[in-house]
Amino acid sequence: MNVLLIGGGGREHAIAWKLAGSTKLDKLFIAPGNPGTAAYGENVDISVDDIDGLVEFAKKADVGLAIVGPEDPLAAGIVDAFEANGIKAFGPNGGAAQLEADKAFAKEIMRANSIPTAETHVFHNYQDAKAYIASRDEAVVVKAAGLAKGKGVFVCDEPSDAIIAAEKIMVDNAFGDAGATLVVEEKLLGQEASILAFVDGRSIYVMESSQDHKAVGEGDTGDNTGGMGAYSPAPVVTESLMEQIIKEVLVPTVDGMNRNGTPYRGMLYAGIMLTKGGPRVLEFNVRFGDPETQPILIRLKSDLLDVMLAVCDGRLDEVSLEWDERPAVCVVLASGGYPGSYEKGKKIRGLEEAGKMKDVMVFHAGTAMAGDDVVTAGGRVLGVTAVGDTIALAKKLAYEAVSKISFEGMYYRGDIADKAIE
Length: 422
Hints:
Layout: E1 2-7, H1 10-19, E2 27-32, E3 42-43, H2 51-60, E4 63-68, H3 71-75, H4 78-84, E5 88-90, H5 98-101, H6 103-112, E6 120-123, H7 126-134, E7 140-144, E8 153-156, H8 159-170, E9 182-186, E10 191-199, E11 204-206, E12 211-212, E13 215-217, E14 221-224, E15 229-232, H9 239-259, E16 266-275, E17 278-285, H10 293-297, H11 304-313, E18 328-334, H12 351-355, E19 360-364, E20 367-370, E21 373-376, E22 380-387, H13 391-402, H14 418-421
């Protein structure tokens, strides 16, 4: 089977690497891909938002399955377009993708199905939001309701900071149309966990747990990013806690989406805050998480293409996944200045040396070719991922690989996975 993988980040590099080992794969195309994905298939110069172009390419290349990585084309209805042309696609359709694309929609699904989450208020104009925030004494979380690539969330301990965040989102239009609607939530306390599950509309198959690090600074300080690192499994997610999350979050979400007329199929990501009162949903994503995908997939022993086809065909109940019991840690190497402005085109050194290390994978996230050189092309540049007998050993190996890589302005957190080691 020919497969078209859409995207060009670290998540897609990890997926391409895993798909390459499938006995069902004939040829893999990645659009647009990156220098890392080129080792496992043919990169195709088509943008992720060129839905018509992607569909036409898939038809000409006899693609049997399209796999959509990023959230933007999912929200734009790319799965609907593929299916209208008789091509299977892994991911939710446009209606179901609202679960990530519209936080107000997601909150309504949670409210209607008694899914535990933070107390929430939704606003469509700045003055109403400002008046509500000014009336609060407690810390709040201010979110752009639309897609903001993980950056439209502000955790504010003071009402004045929350008002500034609301103004940035709704008045300054820092995130464009994503900030037309504002969500203000109570601040939840606890550790976060990322729960990813395959869903075929009826059945749910939960992957191994993981935990990412959203804040740019060590000790979870500074601005939110798309993720500065992750590890799997997350020891804080015990077997009993996972059962509770499945029962109280995943099952009612899938059931609620069916009753809403937006049945869900694809990868469902639940960002969970583990509070003293139990698990609470922070957000839903409608695709593989990034960088959680990297440490999760490096531990997956089973055929990824096989399970994706089972999701598309409604056969998920026939699937059983095997996992490497060893934990994995992913450290993101970012451009200096990220998540704010940063420079591109910096030559990356040491990739070959780090890539030769046993139990290490260096996943490309924001890279490009400049002649024969791999250079930086994004805020998050690489995801250095390692497995080890313990999380501490996996972390040690990952940072040993990091030490072999360099580029001008390179920045990374030094405390990835420390929460799991303490």
